[in-house]
Records
---
Amino acid sequence: MIPGPFTYHRPASVADAIKLLADLGDEARPLAGGHSLIPMMKLRLATPDHLVDLHGIGGLKSIGRDAGTGGDRVVIGAMATQHDLLASEVIASSLPILQETALLIADPQVRYRGTLGGNVANGDPGNDMPALMLTLGADYRLEGPDGSRTVAARDFYQGAYFTALEPGEILTEVSVPVPPAGHGYAYEKLKRKIGDYATAAAAVVLTMSGGRVATCSIGLTNLSETPLLAEDAAATVIGTSLDAATLQKAADAARAIMEPAGDGRGPVEYRKHVGGIMVMRALQRAASLAA
Ligand code: FAD
């Protein structure tokens, strides 16, 4: 339970952090809240020789509307913690599903340290924020030795702990389009106990018009090696009033793309079964909140 030896670095700028990561090579890892990385180091599943702590870099914790897009997007610095998201008026008024999801992550101690950037960059299928970012159509800004680039969350996840991040790159901000006023939303998470990772979870963002679903996006957590966007399930509900038969069809369409691991959270069939139920519950609750 004691990590292997490592050298600690605390750069003061993104440029310094990128240079350090480039100079130190494969054996260096960025450190954010440490609430995924340090447990992995204690278990010796990760043994970096160097940790590059991002806490000394100013400006990576900001949360605000992006003036460049007329305020259509919210831009969140990678080092904003889950607690920062919960305390933010901007998030409360424009992206309430982020607060609902953050509240379902672990416990207050973890939420005070764990960052949005660390949660989405980690690549752990059990992390809750990645599926939400797919659902919302978020983009990630990555900065590295060759400059900066933007990658859609929907293109970022390649496998368990494999992402589009290149060696030496840092995720610096997450940009999320603000859903239309009156949208409905829900994040339904089944877990074995408070503080646990999801056995299965579903995120839904939708709009309603005349009692029928006008737009819909559905994301799934911990039901595959990567977060999933359940596009067929979302298409199934468009134009419907979400009657019982439609809900069942949407759950079945979502189950068709689930490939969960059978593990301590349950066998494969059980996790697919409850995954479909999370989809149905999230759709119903999101519709009930839509204006
Ligand atoms: P770190 O642990 O510091 O880093 C994680 C990984 O991402 C490392 O590989 C690191 O190098 C990399 N990284 C970090 N920041 C960046 C960056 N800006 N750019 C590039 N790479 C970066 N999470 C959930 O989503 N749901 C849960 O239910 C949940 N339960 C938990 C329960 C417990 C008891 C604990 C300890 C953790 C739990 N977590 C859960 C994980 C928690 O949310 C972590 O904080 C989060 O996964 C990682 O964020 P971090 O800031 O701690 O990142």
---
Amino acid sequence: MSDDADRSGFVIAVDGPAASGKGTIALRLGAEFGLPVLDTGLLYRCVGVLMQKAGENLEDHDAAAAAAILLTADQLDDPALRTRAAGEAASRVAVHPSVRDALLEFQRTFAGQEGGAVLDGRDIGTVIAPQAQAKLFVTAEPGVRAQRRWSQLKLQGERLTLDDVVADIRRRDERDGARDVAPMRRAPDAVLLDTSEMTIEQAADAARRIVEAARARWLSSR
Ligand code: C5P
């Protein structure tokens, strides 16, 4: 990347299902292109975890929206947000339109910051930042994703079988893809990156090349 290039407003949207590699790819792209990164899944995880701590029912959309409105950026570093239970709670609160509305401005402000940003999630290229200059939809075979997530969760000390993770992934894919508001979808202008057969290095390299091409198009069009 040339230093003299003007980076203002370059937004990278990275969407895809659980354990597709999109989080790692988003972090690598952020480092590569000098952009701040927001893992938007953490917002939904945080709402779910806060509700569970408060003994609220995850199906209670008013309570969920109230938790979402009060959420602050400093709450997103909590390791409790990385657990299997937090992922499941996140996908249950993420179906409420009121929760998605409450989290919209935070994400759009992040995307709109001077210089640009990288956001990863499920609806970045379709709803949060449809104007993003680079869009990727990162995916992998469900079995491959389950294996990856299982290794990750075991390292975190969780006790569970591969079959548990396969069931989790299937349930989340279905819920995230079938909800009425902002379902997980590949934006028509997003480049599909299937990481099933790739190492993380290969996937990050492919993502970088896709974004470099998008950035070159963006710079030449300004
Ligand atoms: O990406 P991660 O697995 O952390 O996301 C947790 C859950 O949060 C997803 O299963 C999905 O239900 C929800 N989510 C969402 N929209 C986003 C990011 C995450 O609905 N932009």
